[in-house]
Amino acid sequence: MIFFLFIVVLLVAYYIGHRIFIHRKTFTGTAKLYGKTVIVTGGNTGIGKATAAQLAIRGARVILACRSKQRGEAAAQEVRTETGNDAVVFMQLDLASQKSIRSFAETFLKAEPRLDLLINNAALAAPGRTEDGLGMILGVNHIGPFLLTNLLLERLKECAPSRVVNVSSCGHDLGTIDFDCINTHKKLALGSSDVDLFRAYTHSKLCNVLFTHELAKRLEGTNVTCYSLHPGSVRSELARDINEWHTRIIKAIISKFWATDPVSGAQTTLYCALQENIEHLSGRYFSDCQLVQVKPEARDDGIAKKLWDISEKFCGMA
């Protein structure tokens, strides 16, 4: 098992080193966001926190939507201090609970008159099941953002032009959608080993791309646009639920390929959120602040529609 894991890690390192970090671009747009309201899920750490800070610097009212009240409030205070923007607030959101997602949306819609930008950033690679009986990775990485986005769509339309940004990963290239597994087990892959979790994670990132593809079709004519992206691999807490010893091996081998900090990883998110004149590219996928063509499965209308229909069923929206 250890030897197999070592081989997998080497392959991942090769993939990252040769396909992602040849160079990294920086978003240079000058858009200001005064009077605009933004939600960033998972905004208390890593890329999410770096994204939130950059949006706050530009004048936005930023909602950090996070599971942990203690960590979320601490992060909001840090971003306020760092940016000088007092309009950075924490709101509790647990993407592993549809009850929490609905409560968050209800509270937000009552309290906040605007929503100009929704950034679905939070993700994990954890075993187990959600409160609603879904595989944790499927529930948090896809179904949670799917439900949250749909609950907030009307407000986004009211405030248009507005955007939805779904943080995916280059790992979606390695993913596939097994509808039999999803329907039968409510999971993206069976098993709970680190290799199984990695596989399920790549599948969930493909779900993000397909969700964005279908969402764009449904938003045509609304002046709400959406984009998916690979943010760049940075030091974050994504693998916090993977075996600690295995995580240390992975970090030791591929750390030289990682971006230097979360700010670097936030650049493509900022590009998709703020770049001017990309509305005609709604539904597309970006990496390193530029458009990237995805594999056929990731832009298949039939697969995207089927995933949407199943997601509605799992959310009780069908």
TrEMBL record:
Keywords: Oxidoreductase
Keyword tRNA-binding recorded: no
SUPFAM superfamilies xref list: NAD(P)-binding Rossmann-fold domains
InterPro entries, sorted: NAD(P)-bd_dom_sf, SDR_fam
GO MF terms, alphabetically ordered: oxidoreductase activity
Source superkingdom: Eukaryota
Pfam families linked: adh_short
Protein name: Dehydrogenase/reductase SDR family member 13-like
Species this protein is from: Cirrhinus molitorella (mud carp)
